[in-house]
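Need a sequence for this fold. Nothing fancy.
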């Protein structure tokens, strides 16, 4: 499993770009997963629902399951996200992190304006549809999922 974090300022288009990149990677035969970073105030379950109540009662893990969807909820003690990616997504070819700019994972920045993160945070490349100044050695890629898929294949994927 390879992991790459897609980072950028709020509103830069990270989610929009990932929604276009994922199908491009799937069409090339890759098994892809994602993980989204949120603040600690975001509750992923629905307060008051059975799964939430099970967790509140002390269940270590709660699996929500239907004939077409599943979700696993758990509370953790701050272990690095990489431990959970390996445990729950280790069978995939690529996991795209949305956010996680403080992680040790390789990063690609989606840039649409403001001060680029590249230069303050090490990145492999910057995705942009407008001019951007980046440090030497950082590739600028077009806001094109096929071009980014080409880059990921050349740099990270087997």
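Here you go.
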């Amino acid at each position: 499993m390879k992991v790459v974090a897609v980072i950028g300022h709020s509103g830069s288009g990270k989610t929009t770009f990932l929604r276009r990149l994922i199908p491009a990677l799937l069409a090339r035969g890759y098994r892809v997963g994602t993980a989204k970073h949120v603040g600690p105030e975001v509750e992923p379950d629905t307060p008051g629902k059975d799964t939430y109540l099970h967790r509140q009662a002390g269940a270590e893990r709660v699996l929500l399951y239907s004939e077409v969807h599943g979700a696993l909820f758990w509370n953790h003690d701050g272990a690095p996200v990489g431990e959970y990616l390996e445990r729950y997504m280790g069978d995939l070819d690529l996991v795209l992190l949305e956010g996680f700019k403080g992680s040790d994972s390789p990063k690609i920045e989606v840039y649409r304006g403001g001060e680029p993160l590249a230069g303050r945070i090490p990145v492999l490349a910057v995705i942009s549809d407008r001019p951007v100044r980046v440090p030497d050695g950082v590739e600028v890629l077009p806001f094109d999922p096929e071009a980014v898929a080409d880059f990921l294949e050349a740099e990270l994927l087997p």
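For context: The helical segments are 14-27, 50-56, 81-89, 145-155.
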